Amino acid sequence: INRRTVHSSPRAFLEDALSIYVSVLSPNILSDTGPLAAGRNGGSRGFQRVKRGWVWNQFFVLEEYMGSDPQYVGKLHTDLDKGDSAVKYTLSGDGAGTIFTIDQITGDIHALRSLDREVKPYYTLRAQAVDIETNRPLEPESEFVIKVQDINDNEPKFLEGPYTASVPEMSPVGTYVMKVTATDADDPTYGNSARVVYSILHGQPYFSVDPKTGVIRTALPNMDREMKELYQVLIQAKDMGGQLGGLAGTTTINITLSDVNDNPPRFSKSIFHLRVPESSAVGSAVGRIKAHDLDIGKNAEVEYNIVPGDGGAMFDITTNEHNQEGIIMLKKPLDYETKKAYTFKVEASNAHLDPRFHNFGPFKDTATVKINVLDVDEPPVFSKPSYAMDVYEDTPQGTIIGAVTAQDLDAGNSPSDLDSFFDIDPVRGTISTNELLDRESIAQHNISVVATKVNNPVLTSKVAVTVHVLDINEFPPELAMPYETFVCESAKVGQVIQVISARDQDLPQAGQKFSFKSPQEGVKTKNFTIRDFGNNTAGVMTLRGGFKRRSQEIYHLPVVIEDGGLQTLSSTGTLTIRVCGCDTDGSLLTCSAEAIFLPVGLSTGALIAILVCIVILLVIVVLYVGVRRQKKKETLMTSKEDIRDNVIHYDDEGGGEEDTHAFDMGTLRNPKVIKENMFRRDVKPELGLCPRRPVASQNSADISNFISLRLQEHEGDTSAPPYDSLATYAYEGEGSVAESLSSIESVKGETEEDYDYLNEWGPRFKTLAGIFGERSEMPQWSWFVILLFMV
């Protein structure tokens, strides 16, 4: 018994022990014993002793309760309530009457509606017991708290989504992209309702996410912005630690690959032809050339320079900042009669270089510029307002494709061409190819033929000539796109894992027709094959099952594609097939082989060692708990002996008004005189069934007689309570060889005391000396076992 109370005699000690037992019978009931004034020995030695007041325990109510009946919360009870409906319980405070209600007679508290912990986590109320007739408070008003117990009813949410991020192209694996955070409104201190785990649903195998921190990183090396610039990644946050049944929320992250200078500038052709009248002013622009750079922004800025050489001193070149074109400027006056043509080279280079990509090659390109100086005279007259001509692509250079004629009223004329792909005879006006033509680059040329007077270049006449480039079957077909193909480890035999198609740069005459096959038709391959569907598509089909990333992660499958032209052309493409882990429905989970090999590094011996350590820790914890319980256990009676030497401690909780056998009063009697038959104390026994009075032992006859007399008086008392009750009697006995057992003179604190002197008080105190001696000792074998397991 862990309370300090004045005991004037063993009888008072026994009374306090029984009172404390009654107060702890129902720990889930809010009760109050009220003030108690007890007189001892007829009031000659009486004094006031106030027992414990309200005994509180935390009340809980489950949130989001969906039952049809009000939810039971707890019970209020005071010891002044004798069960005769004379006490009324009242409730006030947060939600009293609207959210919580109390049965004024029984004290039962119920919640009237469903509660949300995220709205209000707890409610503070006040309770009071009053007389039902006079409304006079029987006890002071007390305050208590009802806490709303959390359930997992809120999914994680990304408050700032959708997100945008960027990462430089060509970044290595593991480059940081950004961090996303999801919040869960559930209670983080209770269970796993607010423990969030992140995963990536869409965006593999390009990016990965850390399941604990939400940090997104690159998962593939050397991603090229010029191939694909924008990626959309879908991230999922799931509570309950990602376990089954947890709630999940998703967000989208738009990741853009930022540009780096990994592409050099390139001229579209190696020779540029320009025509410049000799009358052009110094400082004027005489032509434009351009080198194309696949990069953007400052990485695509191009600088042009004229390589020193023939004709370079007559011209200068500058860069147009808006479109990165090279503008050729005239530095000195031109004279047709002195020099009719100039040739020089122009070099294009990047203005901002990135040293990380120097190994890609020189970031510059050169092209030749040919400038013809035009003479000025009266313009001649062409025979037609416009001309149209046809020519097949790849026609040999110098082939005549047509002619234009112009008449000059003056003597002599000289037709000329302003397009570098064609040349014109200045006398006959025949137009011939100057370069190999490519329909896929330019399908139609619109050129202008200028006829100038020989003796007066200023006088010119211009006519439009349209040249149609006709297609020939010169390009073999190729795969329509770079396919990213994967095969599941659980793939079945004959399963189509990818559908492919082809494209051809040639102009289709009556619709393109493609066929697909594996190389060396008829030779059996053991992994994959190509199945032509006959509609310009084909499927990649598995020839076996049981693919394992541990055995081989990547397979390369060649595909032969043929077109349907007059001269059939074919090409062989290669598909890269990754072995990936998939869900039961075939959805991609992961293509990384590293996750497969993570458990391999842990040997069987290491696992056994870990398990042995865990078992040892569990045994130590069990022993520690057992020792602690033995130290704190305060059993006041270990054997059935004389009641004057022992106080019996028993944990028997009453069952309410209906339970009439809750208290076994026989435990208080001398064990030598206990009878087997027990009788109810809530009804008056019949005379014929009265038990025979036990014969008291010689050592306890006075106590037995005293209790028997008090029992007879209590049985005949008409004012006794009808149900569970406990009658206590203050009887000190006829004398003792020991001094007073009162705790008034007890030493304060937790200091251990030596109780060996109790062995000197005689046989009556032998059991008491054994009880107190047992409390101060700890079994030596417990320390030996703990030390053994620690070693």
From TrEMBL:
<dbReference type="GO" id="GO:0008013">
    <property type="term" value="F:beta-catenin binding"/>
</dbReference>
<protein>
    <recommendedName>
        <fullName>Cadherin-12</fullName>
    </recommendedName>
</protein>
<dbReference type="InterPro" id="IPR020894">
    <property type="entry name" value="Cadherin_CS"/>
</dbReference>
<dbReference type="GO" id="GO:0005912">
    <property type="term" value="C:adherens junction"/>
</dbReference>
<dbReference type="GO" id="GO:0002009">
    <property type="term" value="P:morphogenesis of an epithelium"/>
</dbReference>
<feature type="domain" description="Cadherin">
    <location>
        <begin position="268"/>
        <end position="382"/>
    </location>
</feature>
<feature type="domain" description="Cadherin">
    <location>
        <begin position="383"/>
        <end position="479"/>
    </location>
</feature>
<dbReference type="Pfam" id="PF01049">
    <property type="entry name" value="CADH_Y-type_LIR"/>
</dbReference>
<keyword id="KW-0965">Cell junction</keyword>
<dbReference type="InterPro" id="IPR015919">
    <property type="entry name" value="Cadherin-like_sf"/>
</dbReference>
<comment type="function">
    <text>Cadherins are calcium-dependent cell adhesion proteins.</text>
</comment>
<dbReference type="InterPro" id="IPR002126">
    <property type="entry name" value="Cadherin-like_dom"/>
</dbReference>
<dbReference type="GO" id="GO:0044331">
    <property type="term" value="P:cell-cell adhesion mediated by cadherin"/>
</dbReference>
<keyword id="KW-0472">Membrane</keyword>
<keyword id="KW-0677">Repeat</keyword>
<keyword id="KW-0325">Glycoprotein</keyword>
<dbReference type="Pfam" id="PF00028">
    <property type="entry name" value="Cadherin"/>
</dbReference>
<keyword id="KW-1003">Cell membrane</keyword>
<feature type="transmembrane region" description="Helical">
    <location>
        <begin position="596"/>
        <end position="627"/>
    </location>
</feature>
<dbReference type="GO" id="GO:0007043">
    <property type="term" value="P:cell-cell junction assembly"/>
</dbReference>
<dbReference type="GO" id="GO:0000902">
    <property type="term" value="P:cell morphogenesis"/>
</dbReference>
<dbReference type="GO" id="GO:0007156">
    <property type="term" value="P:homophilic cell adhesion via plasma membrane adhesion molecules"/>
</dbReference>
<keyword id="KW-0106">Calcium</keyword>
<keyword id="KW-0130">Cell adhesion</keyword>
<dbReference type="GO" id="GO:0016477">
    <property type="term" value="P:cell migration"/>
</dbReference>
<feature type="domain" description="Cadherin">
    <location>
        <begin position="159"/>
        <end position="267"/>
    </location>
</feature>
<keyword id="KW-1133">Transmembrane helix</keyword>
<feature type="domain" description="Cadherin">
    <location>
        <begin position="78"/>
        <end position="158"/>
    </location>
</feature>
<keyword id="KW-0732">Signal</keyword>
<dbReference type="GO" id="GO:0045296">
    <property type="term" value="F:cadherin binding"/>
</dbReference>
<dbReference type="GO" id="GO:0005509">
    <property type="term" value="F:calcium ion binding"/>
</dbReference>
<dbReference type="InterPro" id="IPR027397">
    <property type="entry name" value="Catenin-bd_sf"/>
</dbReference>
<dbReference type="GO" id="GO:0034332">
    <property type="term" value="P:adherens junction organization"/>
</dbReference>
<keyword id="KW-0812">Transmembrane</keyword>
<dbReference type="GO" id="GO:0016339">
    <property type="term" value="P:calcium-dependent cell-cell adhesion via plasma membrane cell adhesion molecules"/>
</dbReference>
<keyword id="KW-0479">Metal-binding</keyword>
<feature type="domain" description="Cadherin">
    <location>
        <begin position="479"/>
        <end position="597"/>
    </location>
</feature>
<dbReference type="InterPro" id="IPR039808">
    <property type="entry name" value="Cadherin"/>
</dbReference>
<dbReference type="GO" id="GO:0016342">
    <property type="term" value="C:catenin complex"/>
</dbReference>
<dbReference type="InterPro" id="IPR000233">
    <property type="entry name" value="Cadherin_Y-type_LIR"/>
</dbReference>
